[in-house]
Design a protein that fits this description.
Blueprint (H helix, E strand, L loop, with lengths): L12 H6 L7 E2 L11 H10 L13 H8 L10 E4 L1 H13 L5 E6 L3 H9 L3 E8 L4 E2 L1 H6 L5 E7 L11 H9 L3 E5 L21 E6 L12 E4 L2 H15 L4 H12 L1 H30 L11 E5 L5 H11 L2 E2 L1 E2 L10 E5 L4 H19 L1
Parallel strand pairs: 1-11, 3-4, 3-6, 6-7, 7-8
Antiparallel strand pairs: 2-9, 4-5, 8-9, 10-13, 12-13
Helix pairs in contact: 2-9, 3-9, 4-5, 4-8, 10-12
The protein binds pyridoxal-5'-phosphate.
Pyridoxal-5'-phosphate binds next to helix 4.
Length: 369
C-alpha cells in the first residue's frame, strides 16, 4: 500500500506519451536539448573523472559555490547550494517550506512538477493564469490569489511549456508581494532576441534556481543549484542533505571547469542559441505551412505551444503517437489552460522537426476528410 502522499500521484502524461514511442517515431515530445558535448567538454569530463570521488560538503564544493555567486550579492558559504538537478532543488525547497494545508501558487500552463510537488507535500496547488497568445501574467489577478495560506509562488521564465518570457517589471511585482518566490530559471541561457530577466536581486524572499541540464545538454549528469538568502537557505540545505547528501562530485567538478573557461563557455552558449534559433525557424515554418497556424515566436527555451482547438488533445496526442509516429505532449498535461494546445519540442534536428510536423499535418487533414 503506497503512502498517502502519493495517493493521487501518477507518472505524468509526458511519460505516458513518451512510452508510446517506437523506433519509427519522431520525438517532438521530449524536454531534453539535442546537444552533444564538443571535444572540450569531453576533455573537461575526462579531467573531472580523475579528481577525488568522495562526498563534498552537503551544499557543494565551496569553489563551485563561489563561481555560482560571482556577480551577485550571495555569500557562497551560506547562500548557495548545489543540487542533483533543479528537480531535486524543487523537492528540497518544497520539503523545507510546504506544509499540509498550505497553498502554492503555480503557473497554468506550467511545468508539471510544481503542482505535483505541492500535492506530495499535502498542500493545494493554486494556479495563476498565463493568457494566450503572448502568455502574459495578469499580476493583479495573481495578487488576488494570495491568502494567508500561500507559502510559495513558483515563477518560470523562460517557460516550459510555453517558450514565453516574463518581463522584468512583472517579476519585480511578484517579488514585491513578499511571499517566498521560487524562480525557476533553468531555460535562461536559451533565448532568441534578448536575454530574459532574472529575479536575482529582486528581494530577500526570492529563491533562484538554475542548472546545466538545458544549457549544456547535461540532463543525465544532474547538476543544478539554488541561491537564496542565508536564513531562507538553511532549511533547504537540511532537506537537501537527507535527499541527496550532495550533488555528484564528478558533475560539480565538470561544472567548475565550464565556469572557469569563460571564453569557451560563451562560445558554447552562443552555439547553442544558434542551433536552437535554426530549429525554432524550422518549427515555425512547418507549423505555418502544415498546420496553418501563425505562432508568436517563442522567446526562450525550445517549445512551441500550438493551438489545436478542434481536438481532444490527449486523444490526439495518443493517436499521433500510435498512428502517425510522432510524439507531442497534450497541453492539458501542463494545466487546464493548456486545453486545446499541444506542446511541440523543437529540440530535434531540423529534418525531424519538418517531417514530424508534416506527419501531424497529414494526419489532421486525413481526419478532417
Ligand atoms: C521548467 C523546468 N524546471 C526544472 C526542470 C528539471 O530539470 P533538471 O532537474 O534536469 O535540472 C525541467 C526539466 O524539464 C523544466 O522544464
Amino acid at each position: 500500500m503506497k503512502a498517502d502522499r502519493l495517493a493521487n500521484i501518477e507518472l505524468s502524461l509526458i511519460r505516458q506519451i513518451n512510452a508510446l514511442a517506437t523506433p519509427y517515431s519522431i520525438n517532438l515530445g521530449i524536454g531534453e536539448p539535442n546537444l552533444a558535448p564538443d571535444d572540450t567538454l569531453r576533455e573537461f569530463a575526462a579531467r573531472a573523472a580523475t579528481l577525488p570521488w568522495q562526498y563534498s560538503a552537503n551544499a557543494g564544493t565551496l569553489s563551485l559555490r563561489k563561481k555560482l555567486c560571482e556577480g551577485t550579492e550571495f555569500d557562497p558559504k551560506t547562500e548557495a547550494c548545489v543540487t542533483a538537478g533543479t528537480q531535486e532543488a524543487l523537492f528540497a525547497i518544497f520539503t523545507a517550506y510546504v506544509n499540509p494545508g498550505d497553498e502554492v501558487l503555480v503557473p497554468n500552463p506550467g511545468f508539471v512538477s510544481y503542482a505535483t510537488l505541492a500535492r506530495i507535500c499535502g498542500a493545494t496547488p493554486v494556479t495563476y493564469q498565463l493568457d494566450p497568445p503572448e502568455w502574459h501574467i495578469d499580476v493583479d489577478a495573481l495578487r488576488k490569489k494570495i491568502t494567508p495560506k500561500t507559502k510559495l509562488i513558483v515563477v518560470n521564465s523562460p517557460s516550459n511549456p510555453l517558450g514565453s518570457v516574463i518581463d522584468r517589471e512583472t517579476l519585480q511585482v511578484i517579488a514585491d508581494t513578499g511571499v517566498l518566490v521560487v524562480s525557476d530559471e533553468i531555460y535562461r541561457e536559451i533565448w532568441y532576441d534578448a536575454w530574459p530577466a532574472s529575479m536575482v536581486g529582486m528581494g530577500d524572499n526570492v529563491i533562484l534556481m538554475n542548472g546545466l541540464s538545458k544549457s549544456h545538454g547535461m540532463t543525465g549528469l544532474r547538476l543544478g543549484w539554488i541561491l537564496a538568502r542565508a536564513d531562507v537557505m538553511q532549511p533547504i540545505v537540511t532537506a537537501h542533505q537527507y535527499i541527496a547528501t550532495c550533488a555528484s562530485v564528478f558533475s560539480q567538478a565538470l561544472a567548475e571547469m565550464i565556469f572557469d573557461h569563460r571564453e569557451w563557455n560563451e562560445q558554447w552558449l552562443a552555439g547553442v542559441r544558434e542551433q536552437f534559433a535554426a530549429q525554432r525557424e524550422a518549427a515555425l515554418y512547418a507549423i505555418r505551412h502544415e498546420l496553418d497556424t501563425e505562432l508568436d515566436p517563442p522567446r526562450g527555451a525550445f517549445y512551441a505551444f500550438v493551438p489545436m482547438p478542434a481536438c481532444n488533445t490527449v486523444e490526439t496526442a495518443k493517436e499521433l503517437a500510435t498512428d502517425a509516429a510522432v510524439l507531442v505532449i497534450p497541453g492539458i498535461a501542463f494545466g487546464k489552460m493548456g486545453q486545446g494546445f499541444v506542446r511541440v519540442s523543437y529540440a530535434a534536428p531540423v529534418d525531424q522537426i519538418a517531417t514530424g510536423i508534416e506527419r501531424i499535418g497529414r494526419w489532421l487533414r486525413a481526419k478532417e476528410r
